[in-house]
Every structure is written in C-alpha cells, then in structure tokens.
Design brief:
Length: 663
C-alpha cells in the first residue's frame, strides 16, 4: 500500500516550501493593521458621544468609507465561500442566479437611503429597532424588531465564524508553527467535552484565532473600527478577484476550452447521507489503524465492457481498525466524466490515492436532475444540475425569486440599513450608488468565470465545495510558482468574512444595549454604564457565536439565503410603509412583520418534513419563500392598517412635514 500526502494538505504545502512563513507573516501583518485601525477608532470614542459614535460613527461617513463599508458588509462569507461552491456545483446558471446583484445598490440605497437617513436624524435613532420604535411610537414593536434581529443575526454569525475559520485553515495548513500549535491544542483539549468534538484541531485553532481577533477589534473600536477595516477589506477583496481571474482562465485553457469541457461533463454519483456508499477491502490487514481522510482518491478496475476506470473520492473520513481489512458504507462520490477522470489519474503523483484496496457493494445515487442517461450539457445551460430536485437547480420561477432575493430583499437587511443611517449627505449617497454598483460588477461576474474554470482544474470537489475558494487560490499560485501570492488571494475571502462578522456583532450588541437596556430597562443609564455594557455585550455575543461554531451547521450559503430572505420578509414592508405611507400605524407594521416572518418560517419548516431538510424549503407554486413572505408581509400590513385607527396627527407631522431635514 502506498499512501501519498493528504489532498487537504497537498495544495497548501506550497506555503511550506520556501515561502511558508510568508502566509503566516501576511496574516500577522493583516491582523496588526486591523488592531491599529481599532485603536485609532477608539480614540474617537473619547471625544464624541459614545452611543452615537460607537454604533453609528456620528453619521459622518464620506463616499469611499460609506460605499466600501456597505459593499464589504454585503459581500460576506457567502460571496467568497458559499457562492463559489454553488458555481462549482451547478455551473454557468449561477450567472443568472446572481445577476441582479449589480442593481442591488440602486434598490437598496436608492429606494430607502435618503428617506431612512432623514427619519433617523429627526428621531435621533441609532439602531434599526430605534427607527421602528420611534416612527410608530411603539416600544412593543421595537422589542419585536430586536428579537428578530438577534434571532437571524445569531444564526448567520455562526456560519460566518465557520467560513472564516475554514479559510484561515487553508491559508496556514502546512506552516510548521501552525501545525505544532494545532498539535499542542489537540492534546490540551483531548479531555474537554465539546471542545474535543471539533472537526479537527486545526479548525479549532483557526476558529479561536479568527474569533478572538474579530471580537477584540470590534469590541474595542466600535463602528468606526468596523468601517475603516471594511474599507481595507473591500480593497483586498477586489484585488484578490482581479488577480485570480486571468490566472484561472489561462490555466484552464481559456474560456472557450473551459466551456467545451463543461458541456461534456456529467454530475458525479454520490452517497446518500443516511445509508449507502461503498465497501473498501484491503489486500492485507494493517498493523495499525488506517485513517482514510476526506478527499482521498480511490480507483478500481473498469466496469465490464468499459475502458473507463472507476474513480471515487472519499467525502467523509473513516478508518479501518488494526488487523481488519474491510469497512462498509464509506461515503464517496464517483466521477462520471472521462476528461475529469483522466485529469485526476494524470496527477496521481501529486494527489492522495489509497492504493492496495478493492471497491465493492457500490450503492450510490445519481443526481435528481442532470444524469438521466449520462446527460451532458447541464453545467452550461439552465436550470443546472441538482442532486435533490428533479426540476434542476434554477428553474425559471426560482430565477425570478432570486432576482427579488438579491435586488429587493437586500433593501430589507438591518445591517445595510445601519449604513444608510450613517452617511454624511445626499451627494455622498448618490456617488456611492455608482461606486457600489461598479464594485459588485468587479466582484461577482469574475467569480462566475473563476469557479467555472475550477470545475476543470479541480474535479471532484462536490464533497467539500465550501473550501473551493481557498483551494483554488492556492492551486493557481502553486502552478505559477508564486506561493507567497496565495496569502493575498486567500485574504480576499477572509476579508469578506471578517467585514461581515464585525458588522453583525455590532448590530446584535446595539440591539441589546440600546434597544433593550437603555430604551426599556434603564433610560437614565450613564454614558459610562452604556460604554461598559456595550463592550461586555459585544464580547459575550461574539464569544457565544464562536463556541457554537466549534461544531457548526453545514450549508453555509443556504444559511445565508435563509437569513437574508427571512430578514427581508420581516423588515422590508414595515420600513417601506413607515418611510412612505402616512396612514400606516403600529398595528399595521406589526402585522407586516409577523405575517412575513411566520409565512417564511412556515415554508422552511414544511420543507423539513416534506423534503427532509430545513434548508430545502417548501416552494409554493414553485416560488422561493422570499416571494411568498414579502407578498404576505405587504398585504397583511396593508389590511391591518386599513382595519385599525390611523396614527396621531402629531406623529405624522413629525416624519412627513414638508420642510426637509438635513441629510
């Protein structure tokens, strides 16, 4: 038997050859810059009103700060981890899936930006629940908004911690100091329940490093620290994508060649999560336990009447006990495209192959859409292959749904609304709309091209698609013998995750401190008390999310879609009505919020029972829950408003008086 090095380690090994310390140095420099910005931001807190400065930056953001913090916050771990995994898994149809993102700033910033900024200034609101509470003069509605924000943001925060940790792990894997530290940590937590159940000591170490860094600089620096680091991270993201694009296209042989190869691809056959797989049998028993890592390749003789060898990749780590030769129900995927099989076999000397083993009892399933009679072409045309849906990944009705999901629901995200409350003046808003639209174009369109090329360069990644971005970054730089550049490329998704985590942390802590404690429990709280409590809550919330992320949920992009669509279904209608409809009252806003949230959640819960997964929601009339949730939210808000008494004239005059507030 011949065990070469682990595929999960083979790519990052370039970092350990002559330039391994470059990755570590790059990370340390990057982290140091973040803390310098936090320290500078903290100095501002001493000279201005703490609450307004800590959570809103004193409403003084200029064009570049406002545009880049808005863009970086929206370009989360999903953009650089979950989105590339979707492109890799489903092909060119993802261009249609994300296409409307280019007009997100027009909808999000243009639709409510100026009006929200005015209303927030008139009421002195610092948070989104602040705006809702004051606009409708309803503490109960404000607390409901707090509850929904904490619920959704906490779920998303855990997913972002996971993404950041996986990216950092890929960057540092193979660095001697990192491997040594991970080994020491593994020994230290081996007897500690829950900590010892982490996916790996390397993941746990990266989670602790990433989590502590983000928590500390966000806690210490507040909103301006988040904004300034977002500016830096936004620049890093776009530079990383621009560098990766020509490298990916050239190494894949050009877009025309890549598309022709993708047109011949058929989806892999996969193991069922609950049962099935393959049986592995060694030629002879081993003296020690044989660990078979996730990502290991296994080949066997061709099937009868075929010249194509069977090629499998392990998707869940397993082991064969010492003295035994067989293990059953090993979870694998099987490549079905001849070009992919030839490519992997041609790289046998640099891939992790398990030799001296026979494969039997093959119990794998085909994709629900995309492998009917070895169907070719599904990766280059809609609706794209799908493992679970017989309608494909993106049928026409869902394409419409996701157009609204990105272009319209982005308007209903509290994290974006906070940014809209912080810009300096109307001219800043107008210029930022163009800036962000250009920025998104430079990010998302190249990502589609890069990770279509990844299907050619890195076959068989469907078993671990969330790691395709950092793996691709390392591969591209390894092929041009510039391993040090991997640190910069991997910093792009790392920056995306970091910019999102710090924003979510601040959003959750402001909800607790401002909207629960100060507005309801202790309105006379001193600034010192508010300051200490803000630090404490930010630290506690971040630490709690980091602990949960030790054993994180799967499906990163699915979590982000659920959270984003759920927030939009809950908040978009109340905000739109509150900003532009004089007649709307607290009851109508509450009806809109509860209606949208309840229907959206019900479709996901129904999906759990009907489709077997919470993240495969039930699709009424083949539409995504965001369409149904938004429709119910707007309709219920309108109906309840019409059936209840109008708001007071005093409240209407305060927010709809014809004289323009400074904005």
């Amino acid at each position: 038997m011949n065990l070469l090095f682990d595929i999960n380690r083979s790519l990052p090994l370039v970092l350990a050859e002559g330039g391994s310390n470059a990755a570590l140095v790059s990370f340390l420099i990057y982290t140091a810059a973040v803390f310098v910005l936090a320290a500078l931001s903290n100095r501002l807190l001493k000279s201005k009103s703490f609450m307004s400065e800590y959570f809103l930056g004193s409403r003084g953001l200029g064009v570049w700060a406002f545009a880049l913090t808005f863009a970086a916050t929206s370009s989360s771990g999903g953009s650089f981890t979950g989105f590339p995994s979707k492109i890799y898994t489903h092909g060119w149809v993802l261009a249609l899936w994300i296409g409307s993102y280019m007009v997100v700033p027009i909808c999000t910033m243009g639709l409510i930006g100026k009006r929200l900024n005015q209303v927030a200034r008139r009421s002195g609101s610092i948070t989104v629940p602040d705006v809702i509470r004051d606009r409708f003069h309803s503490p109960m509605l404000g607390l409901m908004a707090v509850s929904l924000i904490v619920f959704f943001m906490s779920i998303n925060l855990v997913a972002q911690f996971k993404a950041g940790s996986l990216i950092l792990q890929t960057l540092l894997d193979g660095v001697t100091v990192f491997e040594s530290a991970a080994g020491s940590l593994s020994h230290a937590v081996s007897e500690i329940p829950y900590l010892n159940s982490a996916e790996s000591p390397e993941y746990l170490l990266c989670l602790l490093v990433f989590g502590i860094a983000v928590i500390l600089y966000t806690t210490y620096g507040g909103f301006h620290a988040v904004v300034w680091t977002d500016v830096m991270q936004g620049i890093v993201m776009v530079i990383g994508v621009i560098i990766m694009l020509p490298l990916a296209i050239s190494q894949a042989g050009g877009l025309e060649h890549t598309t022709k190869l993708m047109a011949k691809m058929t989806p892999p056959r996969i193991s069922d999560d609950a049962k099935g797989g393959v049986t592995l049998t060694l030629n002879k028993p081993q003296d020690e336990v044989l660990h078979i890592d996730k990502g290991t390749w296994i080949t066997d003789e061709p099937i009868p009447n075929s010249k194509v060898p069977l090629l499998f990749r392990v998707t869940r780590a397993t082991e064969i006990p010492a003295g035994e030769t067989t293990v059953n129900e090993v979870k694998v995927l099987q490549l079905t495209t001849l070009d992919d099989i030839k490519r992997v076999l041609g790289q046998r000397e640099t891939e992790d192959f398990l030799e001296g083993v026979r494969v039997s009892n093959i119990d794998l399933k085909a994709y629900a859409y995309g492998e009917e009679g070895a169907q070719q072409g599904t990766y280059v045309v809609g609706p794209g292959p799908s493992p679970s849906s017989s309608n494909g990944f993106l049928p026409f009705s869902l394409a419409i749904s996701f157009f609204f999901m990105w272009a319209i629901s982005g308007t209903g995200q509290p994290a974006n609304m906070v940014r809209l409350m912080a810009f300096k003046d109307t001219k800043t808003l107008q210029r930022s709309i163009c800036t962000v639209a250009i920025y998104y174009t430079l990010i998302y369109f190249p990502l589609v091209l890069i990770f279509c090329c990844a299907r050619v360069l890195l076959p068989g990644m469907e078993g671990d698609p969330d790691s395709i971005m950092p793996k691709m970054a390392v591969l591209l730089t390894e092929n041009i013998q510039m391993g040090w550049l991997a640190g910069l490329l991997v910093a792009a998704p790392f920056a995306a995750v970091m910019s999102t985590v710090d924003s979510f942390l601040l959003l959750i802590s402001s909800a607790w401190v401002r909207d629960v404690y100060q507005r309801n429990l202790n309105p006379e709280a001193s600034e010192r008390t508010i300051k200490l409590l803000s630090y404490l809550v930010t630290f506690v919330v971040g630490t709690a999310a980091m602990i949960v992320a030790i054993n994180p949920p799967k499906f990163l992009q699915d979590i982000i879609v659920y959270v984003g669509s759920g927030l939009a279904a809950s908040f978009l209608a109340p905000i739109i009505y509150g900003l532009y409809w004089r007649r709307v009252n607290a009851a109508g806003a509450m009806g809109a919020m509860i209606g949208g949230f309840s229907v959206h959640l019900a479709m996901y819960v129904t999906g759990y029972f009907v489709n077997g997964s919470f993240f495969k929601p039930y699709q009424l009339f083949n539409f995504d829950p965001i369409i149904i949730g938004l429709s119910v939210s707007f309709i219920s808000g309108f109906v309840v408003t019409k059936l209840t008494a109008p708001p007071s004239d005093e409240l209407v005059k305060k927010y709809f008086y014809t004289a323009k507030a400074k904005s």
